[in-house]
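Deviations from the work plan: none for this task. Representative record:
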Amino acid sequence: MSANKLVQERTERTEWFRYDRFGMFIHWGLYAIPARGEWVRSTEQLTIEDYQPYFEQFNPDLYQPREWAKAAKAAGMRYAVLTAKHHDGFCLFDSKLTEYKSTNTPAGRDLVREFLEAFRAEGIKVGLYYSLIDWYHEDYPAYGDKAHPMRNNENFKRDPQTFDRYLDYMHGQIRELLTGYGKLDIMWFDFSYDEMCGEKWRATELMTMIRSLQPHIIIDNRLEGSGDLAGSIYTAEPSIYAGDFASPEQIIPPEGVTNNAGEPIPWEACITLNNNWGYSAADNCYKNATTIIRKLVECVSKNGNMLLNVGPDARGEIPQQSLDILAEVGSWMKRNGDSIYGCGKADYDKPEWGRFTQKGNKLYAHVFEQSIGPINLTGLEGKLKSARLLADGSEVFISRPWSAALFENNAFISLAKPEHFTFPLPDARNTVIELELE
Ligand code: GLC
């Protein structure tokens, strides 16, 4: 398939994704019991035997995915991605290819199936995260690998010839997810590294299968990349397995994301609410709602999405700190979502007091910082038809008070009268003014 055709199909497939802009990432599994993050097996070099008690104890008695879905919806999130299998190899779904799955724990449930049903019921698009890496499977490289828990244990030297057996398992599980769980909107792979990349995963064969089973599904770029590695999606000649969107991690790309021809490509920044993807009981370094609101605006102002993570605990509940932040973000989104959904990079440079997002002839001024006197809109003189406070629809005044007489190319807006006065921002987190352009 030609690069143009690949890009054209990618653009069509990601239309809803580039409109919805805001999603929930959910990292959940056995690692919620040690509660030290999802890499605990690797960071503490735990053997399968060390980790086995968590398998035998896993019983999330408070797991009610509909409650998760309601929290996501109230936050203004339009899609959600759950870990079906993380690097530890534990499957949250009833795979016929392994015994290492949630239905064989005291939970006795297909957690993925319940997640999909609950979020679809709330009208939220659904995706599954699937780890290419597998620290449980006996044919995945262990001794000498970059991150495997047994990377330093010579008893775990493995015959590279058996890696294909792992790939048959991996492709088989992905087929299970694509044929046994209804329509999926996103497949979120994680992650490639060193030579473990591209065709090492038999990626062409895998993508061909995925596209044949669920042609609409969108896929991230991590069959080639990772949070730091780009992959060919960043080029004008993407490979067949380049994916449909780039996935910068724990950072918002300073200039947004374009390919090497300067063309914008779909991208999504995945970000944790504290500093861990999986539940970490000791990590109370939560970002506040104002930060999340402003960073979501930053993503959209650069033509990107935000996938914001929650890490439910071992009993199946999202931490209260996360729920509180999501609820406050939702209260802002309820009144200001029009400045996010369907919006992207504006035709005007970033203003000093905040950011712009734009959707057609609607330019949204996200005012983070109070101005002295009227709010300056550089280069917008004569281009404004109307201005409204988005949150309540009230009039905002377009005028050039005496104090701004010198700045003829700029337009000025005031939240109240007299226009040269300084007024407090109605919403200190982010006051959005909807500007209708001529
Ligand atoms: C990194 C981490 C992984 C996490 C992912 C989310 O790849 O290794 O634990 O799931 O980021 O993007």
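The chain has ten helices and 14 strands.
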